[in-house]
Amino acid sequence: MMNNSVFNPEQQQKEISSKIVAGLERISEVFKVLLWEKAKKVGLSPIQIQILIFIAFHKQELCNVSHLAKEFNISKPTVSDAIKVLDRKEMILKDFSSPDSRSYTIHLSALGKKIVAETNDFAEPLKAQIDTIGSNELENVFKTLGELIYKLNRNGILTVQRTCYGCTYYQKNKKTDYCNLLKKELFNEDIRLDCPEFEERV
Ligand code: SF4
Q: Which residue, of 37, 52, 64, 81, is most buried by count of CB atoms within 10 Å of its CB?
């Protein structure tokens, strides 16, 4: 079993899928490194920065403790702790006006927006390298990435995704993909990974 490990370099020589897993593991380190650089600058933890950036770009119904826990695969108490710090630093505002009186949604304060402006480019060094790859190759990578995210979601590893493939409005025709909400054919580059209109297909 140990010999078959994808982390065993010998195994990686035997099959490309092992090499790809090892490669993805390396790339996941990039997010850690880049987030830590920003974290040091603004005096927040990586997860606190991720929460602020998420709130800045997503609809209110996703900006609550339960959803954030699912989105980032951490426990609700861990999210609550992060929110407590952000609240104490006056970077967020809690809104208790939702129909469910036990929970609240989270907004950014003016200071929170300023911090987002300083940190939301943390992944730019990664994007800059991706931009050096040819567009045909990128299209293929994107297609594979979308399929992989969808498959990982279907088998329960990745609980949250907002791609077309898992959306109620998505329709697969013989050779084309179609969005019944936008009423248009989806070419490869139109497939979304984080769609604001996404509704989970059940
Ligand atoms: S609503 Fe968004 S996620 Fe759903 S199929 Fe249309 S574009 Fe894709």
A: 52
